[in-house]
Design a protein that fits this description.
Elements lengths: L2 E5 L8 H12 L3 E7 L15 E6 L6 H21 L3 E4 L5 H7 L6 E5 L10 H14 L4 E4 L2 H12 L4 E3 L21 E8 L8 H6 L6 E8 L7 H11 L6 E3 L6 H8 L4 E4 L14 H8 L3 E5 L2 H8 L4 E4 L4 H13 L1 H17 L3 H4 L1 H11 L2
Parallel strand pairs: 1-2, 1-4, 2-3, 4-5, 5-6, 6-7, 8-9, 8-11, 9-10, 11-12, 12-13
Length: 378
């Protein structure tokens, strides 16, 4: 029986693509083991149960000297489980897993795939320089590296992987998450929806200012978690909404623990917000799961007016673009949706069909699946 061990020094459930790939493999008879940790803000996120998928996590440890010892314990723990469980594959999926995966890549008969979701920042410590060195060495030993969009794939291939195979896999939803065609509601309420990490660069305060310029029946629902650098940001958004007189139109649903719960709420909305403020520190089209998730639920999109976002989502007719730093621009785009409800619903349906036909993880993951089987039977 084929076995694959995922390792990441964070909560693996914070990465939907790991859930999707592991379930694809488990459905095909693979045994899957996740070795991860807790995560600040995202600790409540969980994978759905599956008889062939086991998730083990060490408790979260905050920064400082204790975290260095925690990381060493994590390394030893992963080594112990690898020796005990005897997988054929290691699937490393964050930069902090690279030193461990690099060591494991020297084990006889053990192959490694490296899947990078978030590119690391410039090294500012001895520890991070070691991590980035390990990342480069791992990329040059891995049988395959995976990046979430074409721009990052090209950069990684040229500057890190040194000619090793690198492919692009977008962070799309799974086929089982795609909603049925939406039924038009009778109630005259328009719900804006946001989910993910709740930080200023992804859900700016300008959204609240824009809401104050819109009719009473427009409401904002958000679900997700704060990050270490932005503790209290939800309170700041709610406080601003109260001061602008729209507090009753903003609702925070908290951290919904599973994708099933998240999509159940998302399907109730009308417009999905993917308003990365400019400039973004790394290309996000294809890497951001938000627009794909929203379209899978039949929502029309409101995205940033960046050229790649407009080409990907606006030009094919899945939504509109606006300046995320300008409340008037956001409000103007939403007013267009209010004035054209039929076209708004048509945008969501066109996007849902694109997810069904092409932008789903089963289709995206096919090259990786082929690689796994080809290498197994070499």
């Amino acid at each position: 029986m084929s076995r694959i061990e995922y390792i990441q020094y964070t909560n693996p459930a914070a990465y939907p693509s790991l859930e999707h790939s592991s379930r694809i493999l488990a459905t095909k008879g693979w045994e899957v083991l996740f070795l991860g940790t807790g995560s600040f803000g995202a600790d409540a996120l969980e994978f759905p149960l599956h008889e062939r998928i086991t998730v083990k996590r060490m408790k979260f440890c905050s920064g400082g000297w204790r975290q260095k010892f925690h990381y060493l314990r994590f390394m030893l723990w992963v080594l112990w489980w690898t020796l005990r469980w005897q997988p054929q594959w290691i699937y490393a999926s964050d930069p902090l897993s690279c030193p461990i995966a690099l060591l494991l890549s020297f084990f006889p008969g053990l192959r490694v795939i490296y899947h990078e979701h978030d590119s690391p920042d410039t090294a500012d410590s001895v520890f991070m320089r070691w991590v980035l060195w390990s990342r480069r060495k791992l990329a040059q030993r891995a049988t395959l590296c995976i990046l979430p969009n074409e721009q990052r794939t090209q950069y990684f291939s040229l500057s890190v992987a040194n000619g090793r195979p690198v492919i692009t896999v977008w962070n799309c939803p799974s086929l089982e998450e795609i909603s049925p065609q939406r039924v038009v509601r009778d109630e005259r309420v328009i719900y804006l929806w946001y989910h993910g990490s709740i930080v200023p660069s992804q859900l700016p305060v300008t959204v609240i200012h824009a809401l104050a310029k819109l009719p009473e029946y427009v409401k904002l629902y958000m679900a997700g978690y704060e990050t270490v650098g932005h503790v209290g940001y939800v309170r700041k958004l709610k406080g601003l909404a109260e001061r602008l007189g729209v507090g009753h139109r903003v609702e925070y649903l908290g951290t919904l623990s599973t994708r099933e719960e998240l999509f159940r709420e998302c399907r109730k909305a009308d417009i999905g917000l993917a308003l990365f403020t400019k400039p973004t520190n790394q290309p996000m089209v294809g890497a951001s799961n938000k627009p794909f998730d929203y379209l899978a639920c039949g929502l029309a999109l409101l995205v940033s007016d960046l050229p790649d976002w407009q080409k990907m989502y606006v030009e094919p007719g899945y939504g509109l673009a606006c300046d995320p730093d300008d409340p008037d621009s956001i409000a103007q785009a939403i007013r267009w949706f209010l004035d054209h409800p039929d076209e708004m619903r048509a945008m969501g349906e066109r996007g849902r069909q694109r997810i069904l036909d092409e932008w789903n993880y089963e289709k995206q993951f096919m090259p990786v699946l082929k690689h796994l089987y080809d290498k197994l039977y070499e």
